[in-house]
Write a structure and sequence with these properties.
The structure holds 2 protein chains of 2 kinds. By secondary structure, chain A is α/β, with parallel strands linked by helices. Helix content of chain A is 32%, strand content 28%. A 6-stranded mixed beta sheet of chain A has the order 6-9-10-3-11-12, with helices on both faces. In chain A, strands 18-21-22-15-23-24 form a 6-stranded mixed beta sheet, sandwiched between helices. A 4-stranded antiparallel beta sheet of chain A has the order 2-1-4-5, with helices on one face. In chain A, a hairpin with a 2-residue loop joins β1 and β2. Chain A is globular and about 70 Å long. Chain B is mainly α. Chain B has 2 domains: 275 residues, ABC transporter involved in vitamin B12 uptake, BtuC (Orthogonal Bundle); 73 residues. Chain B is built from 16 helices and no strands. The longest helix of chain B is centred in the middle third of the chain and has 27 residues. Chain B is globular, with a radius of gyration of 21 Å. Chains A and B meet through α10, α11, β20 and α13 of A and α11 and α12 of B. Chain A: InterPro entries: AAA+_ATPase, ABC_carbohydrate_import_ATPase, ABC_transporter-like_ATP-bd, ABC_transporter-like_CS, L-arabinose_ABC_transporter, P-loop_NTPase. Chain A: It is a peripheral membrane protein. Chain A: Its main location: membrane. Chain A: Keywords: ATP-binding, Cell membrane, Membrane, Nucleotide-binding, Repeat, Sugar transport, Translocase, Transport. Chain A: It comes from Sediminibacillus albus.
């Protein structure tokens, strides 16, 4: 039997007004991969912050034992000193510095205070090899993809002689291929005796690699499941997380598909940074009323580029091609024209492209269609409040009131605000780019229901996602996109993950 | 009482500023042995700070957009110089010269807005360049000399008072009348708003608190107009200021374009993807700043009754300080016009009080710097606490 490496006992942590953690217990065995799951706000991140010393030892009650010794961390340096390293959801890399500089940031390889670049580079190459990254350590972080950045973060952790590695949603921003690499790496580490704690919403990939799963809900430990002993199913975990049966994550919908509402013909888009680079090559897609159409593609395939270039040419240079709406060709050269033509685009990055975080729920909801609550220029505040309240009700946005700043909302509720804001423009076509990224299962289910209602109302929905089960669960038809080319088109009943993956990784269309 | 406490803690920023203003005023009232709040001196404070308030209003919009304008002092000086050239050297009528000057201000704003909005040159650089360019042009227009005096018409704008058509002797009757009208209008407006709020089910403050608020603000309006009436009545420039404050507050809170300005500053990307023409918004905010800089330049020149090469020195810093003390965030998206006015008054009362006490310009500068730092630091500390 292996030894217990970490024991967190009766941890209670209160923030003003909320009990974030309520008597939480966590036990991790040496050399295992331990998953920590729960809805957003369940206390996962807080628990890890307690463990790593971000919340100092006098700010919570309860005990932490690491390798049998009681620990009272006052800051991150102390926990890192013992080999507990946490990799946060938002990567802590500096884009303008090189990989080597980032890996040894704060831990520079020096000779009497002067940086020894030779040693730094060599050590970095060694670490990069360990994480399976063959890349020049002089390359700047901003020039490598998110997947590789994640690996660099792990290399950085390895440089600190890590014994317990904590990863907070490491695969949230990664495509399937990169996610798989990363998870395989954790299995590799396990063989070398490094213990990992993995926080993730992607239950299917968790279940493939972990040994034990601890479920948190509302700041309390619900249970710890062992993959060996218990009959663990996705359903079982979700039930633990939500506290009730979510009978069907993807709600049923009887599709009533009407006429074609949107056609994109011979769509070509070039990279604005590098005009020789063709991002989308002769894309032809169509969308019908009441239909949900999925676009499956790996990161970098051009999914977001396709969506944004259609939506008022918000991305790309030298765009050519035709947009046909309701059988008539339309010119859409800016976002305003896109909105006038009944388009809506929900971005994959709601914080950066979707919300004005410092503004209230009310102001965010009405921003795209101020015309509806004003006469030409002057706003009717009362009407605005009425409309915002109505949206809050129909979208089930959980907020004390509509004057709450959106920055204070949970991810799921923020996403509902973004969706609500576009529903307020009464669009015919909704382009949803990763509509459920980084939000918990309960909220996902609600968002799916809203999307289904929109389709039933006769709106056309284009849904972009890197989670294939989501596309297969929601869409009537799915296009696969690879390197800027549409490589395939499938009806839901003919498609499965394997088939989609094959076409998503296919270089050119084989005619 | 608990309701009052709740209101207070929710609006600590707004109450804090007003309390700071009252506190500083009372402090200097005591230190100066009662000179600060005499009718003459209150009138003075308004007139001394009128051009900074005008600039602070424009600067607030610029800062809310997430930009900065370092050139406003130089632009004000340049407009003062060019208006002097129009009126004194070319003998153009005052009205015509004022219109031309404001147009030139708009053009200058358009010039700077163009580089910021459409070429993406950082506003800091564009307006730093503008600060040098327009200071240089001021010297060129004036030939390094001072142009004076201005015709009567311009001086009226910044130094004269509303005539007392009611023929008051020791008190200015028209001022009292206008003050009373303002108070009545205020009460009617608040009452109407409250009725609407009830109709639309808002959270409203309780009736006793509402009435105490009405009484308090009505009293402030009446006492203020009485104090002004005891000296020479309402300065013309105060009318301009009130128009600007009310107009710009309404614009920022109740119009679609005002909302757009907040959105652009709060999150440019999100604003753009919501169909807001972000570049256009930024451009026009700079045009607006140009016009207000021109107005400030005219008021200052009229008050000095001369166009000098050094006019408007460091005005930009006063205007930025006023906006920031008034709660505007340099990160963009946050700020209010009224806040900026209060910020400008805080700086103004400090200046005036220290001058009465005979504190040298050296210490005045240092103390003002510390106040600016303290105001923003307190804000940050309270924000970190609430997080």
């Amino acid at each position: 039997m292996t030894a217990t490496i970490l024991k967190m006992k009766n941890i209670t942590k209160e923030f003003p007004g909320v009990k974030a953690l309520d008597d939480v217990n966590l036990e991790v065995q040496e050399g295992e991969i331990h998953a920590l799951v729960g809805e957003n706000g369940a206390g996962k991140s807080t628990l890890m912050k307690v463990l790593s010393g971000v919340h100092p030892s006098n700010s919570y009650s309860g005990d932490i034992f690491f390798k049998g010794k009681k620990c009272e961390f006052k800051n991150i340096n102390q926990s890192e000193g013992l080999g507990i390293v946490i990799i946060h959801q938002e990567l802590a890399l500096i884009p303008e510095l090189s990989i080597a500089e980032n890996v040894f940031l704060g831990n520079e390889q020096t000779n009497k205070g002067v940086i020894n670049w030779h040693k730094t580079t060599e050590a970095t190459i060694k670490l990069l090899n360990k994480v399976g990254l063959q890349i020049n350590p002089q390359v700047l972080i901003k020039n490598i993809g998110v997947g590789k950045q994640q690996l660099v973060e792990i290399a950085k952790a390895l440089s600190k002689e890590v014994e317990l590695l904590i990863l907070d949603e490491p695969t949230a921003a990664l495509n399937e291929e990169d996610s798989e690499n990363l998870l395989n790496l954790l299995v590799e580490f396990k063989k070398q005796g490094i213990t990992s704690i993995l926080i993730s919403h992607k239950l299917n990939e968790l279940m493939a690699v972990v040994d034990n799963i601890t479920i948190l809900r509302d700041g309390k430990t619900i249970e710890t499941l062992s993959m060996d002993k218990d009959a663990v199913t996705e359903h079982r975990i979700i039930k633990g997380m939500v506290g009730r049966d979510v009978d069907d994550l993807y709600p049923e919908r009887t599709a009533k598909i009407g006429e074609t509402v949107l056609e994109i013909k011979q769509w070509n888009v070039f990279d604005p940074e590098n005009p020789a680079n063709k991002m989308l090559d002769d894309v032809n897609i169509h969308l019908r009323k009441g239909e949900i159409v999925g676009i499956a593609g790996l990161m970098g395939a051009g999914r977001t580029e396709l969506a944004m270039s259609i939506f008022g040419k918000s991305y790309g240079k030298s765009i050519s091609g035709q947009i046909v709406k309701d059988g008539k060709e339309v010119q859409i050269n800016n976002v305003n024209q896109a909105i006038e033509n009944g388009m809506a685009y929900v971005s994959e990055d709601r914080k950066k492209y979707g919300l004005v975080l410092n503004d209230s729920v009310r102001k965010n909801l009405t921003l795209s269609n101020l015309r509806k609550i004003s006469d030409k220029t002057v706003l009717h505040k009362h009407q605005e409040v009425k409309e915002a309240e109505k949206l809050k009700e129909t979208m089930n946005i959980k907020t004390p009131d509509i004057e709450q700043k959106t920055v204070n909302l949970s991810g799921g509720n923020q996403q509902k605000v973004v969706l609500g804001k576009w529903i307020f423009t009464d669009p015919d076509i909704l382009i949803l780019d990763e509509p459920t990224r980084g939000i918990d299962v309960g909220a996902k289910n609600e968002i799916y229901k809203i999307i289904n209602e929109l389709a039933v109302d006769g709106k056309g929905v284009i849904m972009i996602s890197s989670e294939l089960p989501e596309l297969l669960g929601m869409c009537d038809r799915i296009y696969t996109l690879s390197e800027g080319n549409i490589t395939g088109e499938f009806n839901r009943k003919d498609a499965d993950q394997e088939l989609l993956m094959t076409y998503m990784t296919r270089g050119r269309r084989s005619r | 009482m608990t309701e009052l406490k709740g209101l207070f803690s929710q609006n600590i920023r707004r109450f804090g500023m007003v309390i700071a203003l009252i506190g500083i005023a009372l402090l200097f009232q005591i230190l100066t042995g009662g000179i600060l709040l005499t009718p003459l001196n209150i009138t003075n404070i308004i007139m001394q700070n009128s051009y900074i308030i005008v600039l602070a209003i424009g600067m607030t919009l610029v800062i809310i957009t997430g930009e900065i304008d370092l050139s406003v002092g130089s632009v004000a000086a340049f407009i003062g110089a060019i208006s002097a050239y129009f009126m004194i050297s070319l003998d153009i009528s005052v009205a015509m010269a004022v219109i031309l000057s404001l147009l030139i201000g708009a053009l200058i704003g358009a010039w700077q807005g163009f580089w910021v909005a459409y070429v993406n040159v950082p506003a800091f650089i564009v307006t730093l360049a503008g600060m040098l360019i327009f200071r240089g042009l001021t010297l060129i227009v004036l030939g390094g000399r001072t142009l004076a005096p201005f015709p009567e018409g311009l001086r009226t704008l910044s130094s004269d008072f509303l005539p007392d058509v009611l023929g008051g002797q020791t008190v200015h009757l028209l001022t009292l009348l206008l003050g009373s009208i303002a108070a009545v209008l205020y009460i009617i407006n608040e009452w109407k708003l409250r009725k609407d709020y009830v109709k639309f089910n808002y959270n409203i403050i309780s009736l006793p608190l509402f009435i105490s608020k009405l009484v308090l603000i009505t009293l402030v309006i009446l006492v203020f107009s009485y104090v002004l009436a005891l000296y020479a009545g309402i300065p013309n420039v105060l009318l301009i200021l009130l128009l600007l404050i009310i107009g710009y507050s309404f614009y920022m809170n109740n119009t679609t374009t005002g909302r757009h300005i907040y959105a652009v500053g709060g999150n440019t990307h999100a604003a753009q993807l919501s169909g807001i023409k972000t570049k256009k918004v930024t451009f026009w905010v700079f045009v607006n700043m140009g016009i207000l800089s021109a107005l400030a330049g005219l008021i200052f020149a009229g008050r000095l009754n001369a166009a000098t090469p050094q006019a408007g020195n460091l005005f930009e810093l006063d205007a930025i300080a006023a906006a920031v003390i008034g709660g505007a965030s340099l990160a963009g998206g946050v700020g209010t016009v009224v806040g900026a006015v209060i910020g400008a008054l805080i700086m103004g009362v400090l200046n005036n009080g220290m001058s009465i006490l005979g504190i040298g310009i050296d210490w005045q500068q240092a103390i003002k710097g510390l106040v600016l730092l303290a105001a923003v630091a307190l804000d940050m500390i309270s924000k970190n606490k609430s997080r």
